[in-house]
Every structure is written in structure tokens, then in C-alpha cells.
Specification:
Elements: H1 6-9, H2 13-48, H3 64-89, E1 91-92, E2 96-97, H4 98-166, H5 175-178
Antiparallel strand pairs: 1-2
Length: 181
């Protein structure tokens, strides 16, 4: 005989067939279980998240719980915003909306400002009228200045001539400036 070990020589075709079917079943089972295992692995990685890997340039991926917390915080912020909006559009004392009340207040303030502007315009108009009157009086006075100066010069010349005639040079008569006052 040959050098085949006894245990190998005792194997029958049926046993070989059963071993091959078993190996095929294991391979088929592995092909079926492998995607399930990979999916389960991915599920747990997503659930737990992954830390950042700076050397690889991969950013952190937060897990499900961290993501839910972030969404919960966002929901709280949005609900606070919603409450603020609802507080502005809900009826106040059953009559008007709060925004309408604020609008009425603004309208009252604008009306008061309009009244103030009209009063200021009236004051400016009266000041302008007073300014025109003052300007007219100044113009009249300025028109009379040359006449007054000519009159003063004439009187000064007369007094000077009189003083020279009376030999009282250097002595001013008080009557020279009294009439001009």
C-alpha cells in the first residue's frame, strides 16, 4: 500500500461531501453574516461617535447622544423664540395686540413731535419778523449817521471858530457834545 495515513484512508466519499457542504455553508453563512456584522459595527460607531484624528485630518464625529443633546438645545432655543413671538402677537387684555399698542404709542409721540415742530416754526417765524424789524431800524439809523456826523462836524467847526475868535483855544465847551447825546 501507499504512505497515506490510516485516518485519511478511512474517509469515505460521503464524509468528503459532508465536509464540502459544511465548508460551503460556512462560506454562505459568512457572506450573509458579514454585512450584518459590518452594519452592526457601523451602528455602534455612529452611536458612540469617533474622536478627531488630527494626524489623518479626520474631524470628530459626535455620537447619537451628543447630537440629540445639540438638537435638544436647539429645540429649547427655538421654543424660547416662539414664546417671545407668541407674547408679541397674543391679545393684551382682550382688546388689542401688543404691537398695535406700541404702534399707537409711536403715533402719539409723532403727533407730539409734529406739534413741537409747528410751535418751533411759529417761533422761528416771529424771530424772523423781529429780525426784519430790527434790520429796518438799523438801516434807518445807518442812513441818518452821515447826517448826524455832518451836523456834529459843523458844530465842531463852529465851536472851533468861536474858540479861536474868543482866544480860548484848548478849552472845550461842554455844549459841543451835549446836543449829540
Amino acid at each position: 500500500m501507499s504512505n497515506i495515513p490510516q485516518w485519511l484512508a478511512d474517509i469515505t466519499v460521503g464524509q468528503i461531501f459532508i465536509v464540502l457542504v459544511g465548508i460551503g455553508a460556512i462560506v454562505a453563512g459568512w457572506r450573509f453574516v458579514s454585512p450584518l456584522a459590518l452594519g452592526l459595527k457601523n451602528f455602534f460607531e455612529d452611536w458612540n461617535g469617533e474622536p478627531a484624528r488630527p494626524k489623518s485630518g479626520i474631524p470628530e464625529r459626535p455620537g447619537v447622544m451628543a447630537t440629540l443633546k445639540d438638537h435638544g438645545d436647539e429645540i429649547v432655543k427655538n421654543s424660547q423664540k416662539l414664546e417671545a413671538i407668541e407674547s408679541q402677537v397674543t391679545p393684551n387684555h382682550g382688546s388689542e395686540l401688543k404691537l398695535a399698542e406700541e404702534l399707537q404709542g409711536l403715533r402719539r409721540e409723532v403727533a407730539e413731535l409734529t406739534t413741537g415742530v409747528k410751535e418751533t416754526q411759529a417761533d422761528v417765524s416771529s424771530l424772523a419778523l423781529g429780525m426784519k424789524e430790527t434790520q429796518g431800524a438799523l438801516n434807518d439809523h445807518l442812513e441818518n449817521v452821515p447826517v448826524i456826523l455832518a451836523d456834529l462836524l459843523e458844530r465842531a467847526n463852529e465851536n472851533t471858530a468861536e474858540m479861536i475868535a474868543n482866544s480860548r483855544v484848548g478849552h472845550l465847551q461842554p455844549s459841543l457834545f451835549e446836543d449829540a447825546r
